[in-house]
Amino acid sequence: MTAVADPGALLDAYRERVDRRAEGVDETLTVDGTRPHTDALIATIERLGLEGLLDRRAETRRFVSDDGITYGTGEPPPGEGVAPDEPRTAGPWRVDPLPLVIGSEEWAGLERGIRQRAHLLDAVLTDLAGPQRLVREGTIPGQVVYGHGGWLPQAEGITLPGRHQLVLPATDLARDADGTWRVFADRAQAPSGAGYAMANRRIVARVMPDLHRASDLSRLRGFFYGVQRAVRRVAPRTDDMPRVVILSPGTLSETAFDQAFQAMLLGFPLVESEDLLSRDGRIWLRTTSGLSPVDVIIRRVDADWCDQLELRPESRLGLPGMVEAARLGHVSIVNPLSAGLLENPALIPYLPHVCRDVLGEDLLLDSPDTWWAGERSHRSHILAHLSSLVVRPIHHAGRDDAIRGWDLTQEQRGALAARIEDEPWRWTGQDPLAMSSAPVVTKHGLDPRNVVLRTFAVADDEDYLVMPGGLGRLSARRDSADVSSAGGAPSKDVWVLAGDIPTVSRDGGASPELVPSPHVDHAQTLVAPAPRVASDLYWLGRYAERAESVARVLRVADNLVDDHAQRPGTTGHAAMVALLRAVTEITSTGPGFVGDGGRGRLDDPLPHLRQLVVDPGLVGSVAYSARRAVITAQAVREQLSQDTWLVVSRLEHTLQHVQPDDDLQEILMESLEAFLALSGIAVESTVRDPAWAFSESGRRMERAQQTIRLLRHTLAVERTPLVEGATTEAALIAAESVITYRRRLAAGLGPLSATESAIDLLLRDPINPRSIAFQLERLAEALELVDPDPLDEVVATVREARARVAALELPTLMEDDRAGLLVELEQLDATLRRAHTEIEERFFTRKARQHSVQTVSWTDGVAW
């Protein structure tokens, strides 16, 4: 490591690297000093030095991990049928600890330009989706509009109520060589990144607390209040509070975190296509308690994937009938389906004239010189300067499709020129931007990286509200023109110094609109989740409890192995063997410690015990169940407390970074601490609503079945008195009930037989949080919260099982080698399995995938 120790040398080395850049300005340094608004940042860099900055970088990475912030394609949806070894391709989000600071005066001018551009694009969208005057009068060539993939004739004439059609625009900016901010792309289809911007702020504020406190910053939270207001104002209904949902492509989306985090910030449910239903020209949200009307859809799905009936029939992300519902005015889609037109780079050459035409103003934020090959003179310029232009197709395909002419060989440029000649209307050429640089902390010092600033705006009455700052994105390598999060590029928190910025802009918007009510009926505030969400919450509870239960049993087994593995023929060794065989049955992990391979594993149990703890590919292991719990949690992120991710991160780290010589007891204890923390969050930090009830149902169902398995394979098997005593103690320790058991025995309470007392404690005791009776009672209560119908079959099944347990006669069950106890436990297990099936059928029925049917008619042998 070639670190620079002296703070002055650190900045001097950075200046040398900046000076070596071919062109462009720096966001921190000037030719003869530093930018005035970065004084506090420079002082912090000097105070910390490289060692301190590297510590902050490590801390930043830890916070990203703790908060579960990811970017990239995620895992398949969770479920029992998911292969355990499927790779995770979603990587951690990257944040540099040094913020990108923008002065108040500079931001004021930039904000004016962003607001003007939002008004301009809104006017263009309003015209192109309606009268199309700009095309008819030749202000914008028709091929620019109709040749773009964002042109959807099916959406023609669909308008939103209110002043604005473009509700949530975003703009990508970078500086040119003289430091002027320029727009090189507009994002109006389904802009992403606002959630990442807020996540960055939360992290950098914690990593750089002194700098954050010392800086008078404009806040971001108000922007999200503005989004809440804006989307409710475009709702078609006004008599009730509009129901707003965020339509997501799902957990496989690259920006799944961004979507879920925004859903949490806004308080709107995050839904997928299967959560929605089209009926009678309306869109409905499917919940576990019935259908709920949807008034506004904030879509994070590209427009042409939104409706299989009228758009892409192969789509699995949309809903047949969505376009028709919007056409009828029964649902508002934000941004409108036709908004993708605005991302067309071929519009850029015409925007200055359009701005003067529709707004009567000169364009404040210019773009780099851009040419559309559909015009002969433009095409000639592009072909003559291919080696120095950035060439793009007019339709953005969701990836970095920029072709940098200087990176092409002569042969490649010839091939590109031929493509442009063949279909000139499909192509644009644009002068490259030098881009500014900003310092990034690396182990070799501060390194200059190219900066792209994505800004966000939202319609606000007659104007637009701009997020003060935005999302800073950097190139992965020095002087690289590729600024892509998919390529591992880091991001920056963007700080706008408040200065004399008006209060509304400082705060990013006013407080959220509240609906006054003289009385709140809390029962009416319980919102049932969609079946998909309910299922994930239920399985989250089950997997977390399963991992905890197995960890407890393995901890006891490992202790017995340590004490008795080398003492065959003793009572302790017999108890160890009994519990190890029970482990096999409880975890359902194949032969385990029984069957043909059991003898060898009993001779040396530790390798298999370790595998049962840390092997994520072994179904039934702690790591497997914990990983499933993490996946289900990621699928319902917006439903969970932020503290959940701190616990989940620590749990993943514990199980993923196990070394061969790590102590198994320590691994199990750290895992149990995480599981206990998750339980604590559920108990102390979660509102008792239907979402909680499904998670609680899963937890209670799993604990009941795990306790049944523990009893069946330990206390329900008659052994010699000494072995039975040791086995009983082991089972009670695994069930966290041994202290109560000992106290009751010492006080002469409960059944006279010690074994009967243990069985009673784990089976019938209504006040033991680990007993089967306790689980059944809590399970019934949770299910009643989900559906208070007293005739509900699921609740009736659970209540009947609870009554049966309460009526059990232990002396009778203990007769005939405890055959009666085994029968009762098997019947209880079968009843719970039936209840599980009833829960799935009653609440988790998933909607069949919808698609349009392509019909073919034949006339005179020709298919139509």
Structure description:
It is a single chain. By secondary structure, the chain is of the alpha+beta class. The chain starts with 6 loop residues before the first helix and ends with a strand. Residues 75-88 and 853-864 have low confidence and may be disordered. Strands 5, 6, 7, 19, 20, 21, 22 and 23 form an eight-stranded mixed beta sheet that branches. It has 29 helices and 25 strands.
Characteristic key phrases:
elongated; 29 helices; 864 residues; eight-stranded mixed sheet; alpha+beta; four-stranded parallel sheet
Helical content, roughly? Answer: 40-55%
Helix/sheet category: alpha+beta
User: Compute the gyration radius: what is it?
Assistant: 32 Å
Q: What does the overall shape look like?
A: elongated
Count of helix runs: 29
Cα-to-Cα separation, first versus last residue: 69 Å
Mean pLDDT: 89
Low-confidence stretches: 75-88, 853-864
Strand content: 5-15%
By DSSP, the count of extended strands is 25
Largest sheet: 8 strands, mixed
In short:
The chain is of the alpha+beta class and 864 residues long. It contains 29 helices and 25 strands.
Topology:
Elements: H1 7-19, E1 29-30, E2 33-34, H2 39-66, E3 70-71, E4 91-92, E5 100-102, H3 104-128, H4 133-136, H5 142-146, E6 170-175, E7 181-187, H6 194-207, H7 209-214, H8 221-233, E8 244-247, H9 256-266, E9 270-271, E10 276-279, E11 282-287, E12 290-293, E13 296-299, H10 322-327, E14 332-334, H11 351-358, E15 370-372, H12 376-384, E16 390-393, E17 403-404, H13 410-422, E18 427-430, E19 437-442, E20 445-460, E21 463-466, E22 471-474, E23 491-496, H14 503-507, H15 531-564, H16 571-587, H17 598-603, H18 606-614, H19 622-635, H20 643-656, H21 664-684, H22 690-713, H23 721-734, H24 738-747, H25 754-763, H26 772-786, H27 793-806, H28 810-813, H29 815-843, E24 858-859, E25 862-863
Parallel strand pairs: 5-23, 8-9, 8-13, 13-14
Antiparallel strand pairs: 1-2, 3-4, 6-7, 6-20, 10-11, 11-12, 15-18, 16-17, 16-18, 19-20, 20-21, 20-22, 22-23, 24-25
Helix pairs in contact: 1-2, 6-9, 15-16, 15-18, 15-19, 15-21, 15-22, 15-23, 16-22, 16-23, 19-20, 20-21, 22-26, 22-29, 23-25, 24-25, 26-27, 27-29
